[in-house]
Amino acid sequence: MIALSFSQIKKAYYEQTVLDSISFSINAQDKLGLIGRNGTGKTTILRLIAGVEEPDSGMIYMDSKLKVGYMKQTDELDEDYTLLSYCMSAFEDLLSLEENLTAMEHEMASFKTDNEDFKIFMSKYEALSHSFEQQGGYIFRSKVRGILNGLGFGDESHDRAVKSLSGGQFARLKLARLLIDEPDILILDEPTNHLDIATTSWLENYLKQYPKTLLLVSHDRYFLDSVCTKIMEIENSNTMIYDGNYTVFKKKKEAHLEQLKRQYEKAQSERAKQEELIRKFKQRGTEKLAKRAKSREKRLERLETPEYVASRDNKMKLNLKAGLSSGTEVLHVENLCKSYGEQEVIRDVSFNVFRGERIGLIGHNGTGKSTILKILEGSLDFDEGQIKFGHQVLCAYYDQSMEDLDPECTIIEEIHNFVPLMDEVDIRTLLGRFLFTSDDVFKPIKVLSGGEKARVMLTKLFLTDSNFLMMDEPTNHLDIYSKEVLEDALGSYDGTMIVISHDRYFLDKICDQILEIDNHELTLYHGGYSYYTEKKAALAAKDEPDKPLVTKTEKRQDKKKERQMINQKKSLQSQVSEIEAIIHSTETRLEEIAHELCDEAVYSDPEKTKAILSEEKQLKTTQEELYEKWEEINEQLSDM
C-alpha cells in the first residue's frame, strides 16, 4: 500500500531550482533513508511531505487521514513546561479520561450497590475503563519515561524546566515528543546530530521496531545500515530507490554504475565502428557506397549515447601524507586532571600513543573527550598531570567548533594567511580539489555553510605536513560522499592520529584502536569499532549467567547451513565465470562480424549479408540476456 507519492514535483528558491520534476512513491511501513549531496533538496522533500512548504508545480498524493510527524526548527513552548509535562501533553485526552475515572472511583463510595443508578454508573465506568485501556492508558506513562531515558534524560531531569535546556538538549526533547506522538509517517532530519553513540544505539533499536512509515535524512551510514530497509538517492535531479540498507545500496549502486559504464563504452565502440565504416564507404568513391555512407550517417545521428558515468564523480580529491617521521613514542599522558570550577571533567587520565596508531576516542557527551584534545593541542590549561610528546612529533588539530576560522576573511584569504608563501594560483588549484571553484573562493567565511567551513578546515589541515593528527568530529557537516573521500585520504595517511567521532562507520573504517572514556576511566580496545562492540557484548554476556547455551544439535545445524551457503556461493561464482567466458566469446564474434561487414565480398552478396546480420542480431540478443543473468547472480552474491 502506497503511503505517499510525488509526481513531477518542482521547487525553486528565487532563481535556484532545487527539485526538478521529481517523482517517487513510498509504501506504508517502509523505513526509507534519503541520501544525496548537500544542496540536492533532501530537506526540501521532507518539508514538502510535512506540509511546511508547497511545491511550485506537480502533485503530492497522500491519504489525508495519515498523521505526519516532523520536527520543526522552532517551537513555541509554555515557559512553565518541564521535560515530563511537555511530553505528557501529547496525552491530553488520556489524562482527561484518567481524571474522570479517578473522580468516578471516588463517587462510587456514595452509591448504594442495590439500586438501578449504580448499575448505570458502573456500566458507564466499565465503558470508560475499557476505552482507557484500549488507548494505552496503563502504559503511556512508562512509554514517556522510557523514551526520555533512552534519549539521555534520566529520571532526575524529568522535572527540569524546558527553558533551561541547551540547543542540543532541546533538539533531543523535541525528538522524544515526536516519538511519543507515534505519527503514521515519521519524518526525521539528521536525528543523530545531537546524540552520543549510546543514545544513537538506543534510537536505532527503537526505530527498527517502529510499526509505521519512517522517512529520514541522515549522513550517519551506520545508522542507515541499522534502521533502513530502503535507500533513496537524489542525484542530478533524479531519484532512485534501492531495496536494502546503506551497505546493500552501495553494492547495487556500484553494479548500476558499472552497467552504465559498459553501456557507454559499448555505445562509443559502436559509434566508432559506424564512423569507420562511413569513412571507408566514402573513400571507395562509388555511388552505391556513398548512399550507404549517408544511410549510416543518419543512423549514427539517431544513435543515443548513454551519460558518461565518470562525469558524475564530483568529489574532493585529497592526498594526505605525513612530513617528517616521528619517534616511536608519540605521546605520553599521565594522571591528567581538569576541572571547571567545582565540576571535575577529567580525573587521573593516563594513556600512551605510538607511531602509526589510529585511535578513536569515544564516550558519552560530557565525559571530557574534547577537553583532552584541547589540552593536548595547547589551547586549554590543565590542573594536574604530565604530557610529553615524543621526538620530532608535529601536531595538527581539527577543531569541530571551527573557531580558528576568521569570519571576516574570504576563503582564499584564510588559506593565504595560513601559508603566506603560497601563490594565488596554487591556492586556487588546491581549493579546487576541495570543491571551491571559480568565484567560490571569494566567499566570506561568515556566509559559508557548516559543510563548506569543514572543507576549509580540512584544506588547512592538509597543508600542515604534520605526522600526528588530532581531530575532533571531522565528519560533522560533511555529506556522505565527502566523508568517503576523507576516509580514503586518512586511510592512506602514514602518520599517527587520535580522533573523536560519533560516526561509527568512520571509526570502523579508519581506527585500529578504540579508547573509551567512561566515569573518568579509560579502556583501550585493540581493534576497530566493530571489534569494540563485539568485545563489549561479550563482556556483557559474562554478566548473564542464565543465558541459554547453544546445543550440539544447533551447532551441527549451523555448520550444515554454513556449508550449504559456501557450496551455493561457489556454484554462483562458477556460473559467473562461465557467463563471463561466453560473453567474451560473444563480443569477440561481434567484432569479427563488424569487420566482415566491411568486406566487399560480403556486403556485395545479399545472401551472405543477410546471414551475417541475422547472426549478429541473435548474438546481441544473447549478449543482453547474458548480462542480465550476470547481474542477477552478482546481486545474489552481494546479498550472501
Describe the strand arrangement of the main beta sheet, using strand numbers.
5-6-7-3-8-9
User: Mean of residue pLDDT?
Assistant: 83
**Rg calc:** 32 Å
Helix-strand makeup class: alpha/beta
Alpha carbon gap, first and last residue: 28 Å
Largest sheet, in brief, is: 6 strands, mixed
Number of strands: 18
Helix content: 40-55%
Rough shape?
Answer: globular
Strand content: 15-25%
How many helices in DSSP terms?
20
Low-confidence parts, pLDDT < 50 over ≥5 residues?
Answer: none
Description:
The protein is of the alpha/beta class and 640 residues long. The chain has helices at residues 42-50, 83-88, 92-107, 116-134, 140-150, 167-181, 197-208, 221-227, 246-284, 287-302, 369-377, 411-418, 424-433, 450-461, 480-491, 504-510, 529-542, 552-596, 600-603, 606-639, and strands spanning 2-13, 16-27, 31-35, 57-62, 68-70, 185-189, 213-217, 230-235, 238-243, 329-340, 343-354, 358-362, 384-389, 395-398, 468-472, 496-500, 513-518, 521-525. The strands form four sheets. The protein has a six-stranded mixed beta sheet, sandwiched between helices. Strands 14-15-16-12-17-18 form a six-stranded mixed beta sheet, with helices on both faces. Strands 2-1-4 form a three-stranded antiparallel beta sheet, with helices on one face. A hairpin with a 2-residue loop joins β1 and β2. α5 packs antiparallel against α6 (167-181). The longest helix has 45 residues, at 552-596. It is globular and about 115 Å long. The chain starts with a strand and ends with a helix. The model has no long low-confidence stretch (mean pLDDT 83).
